[in-house]
């Protein structure tokens, strides 16, 4: 904020500064500082510092440092460092490093490294290497060898009877009790059986099971369903037989004997 001319605010600030400058509080602070400056406590601190500065231990350290500074060993080290600094070998190394730094070969290497760093094949290579490392680190187990199972079962019993093939079928259909199912089966007499059966389910679907059975494969069934499920399914009941008709019984009139 700038003041143009002599504003009342600036005049008030100048008057406040002048009053503080000549105030008794500032004079007391200056007197206290002057008393501390010339106080015995400060003088004692200065004397202690002077004694520490001139004590024998510090003087011995200073003399030892001065002796080492002017010792022949330090001078030899400084001369050797100076000779190496100005030696032709160091200059040649610096020149070779400078030439390599500005050489085309280094630039090409940097460009190739940058292109290799940003190419997609590098990421694929990293992923492939990580996968191979994980596979190699995993424990190796011998591959199990499986041999195809060929059953060599043969019935051990010996029947004295000749093979007897058979064929049967039956069915039940009763709408009143909601029973509707059938079954048919055939056999060649040598242990091979083939058949199927159907069942009407409570939801209106028909379950059909077709099966085969023999001494080697056992029982093998194929189950299929037909129709749509209906949970309120009730087959219409229509009796196929006529209602029984009963005739009223005919009684002869009783006969009574003579009256006495």
From TrEMBL:
Highest taxon above the source species: Eukaryota
Database matches in Pfam families: Chitin_bind_4 (PF00379)
Entry GO MF terms: structural constituent of cuticle
InterPro entries: CHIT_BIND_RR_consensus, Insect_cuticle, Insect_Cuticle_Struc_Prot
GO cellular component: extracellular matrix; extracellular space
Keywords, ordered alphabetically: Cuticle
Keyword Ligase: no
Protein name, entry field: Uncharacterized protein
Source species taxonomy: Eukaryota, Metazoa, Ecdysozoa, Arthropoda, Crustacea
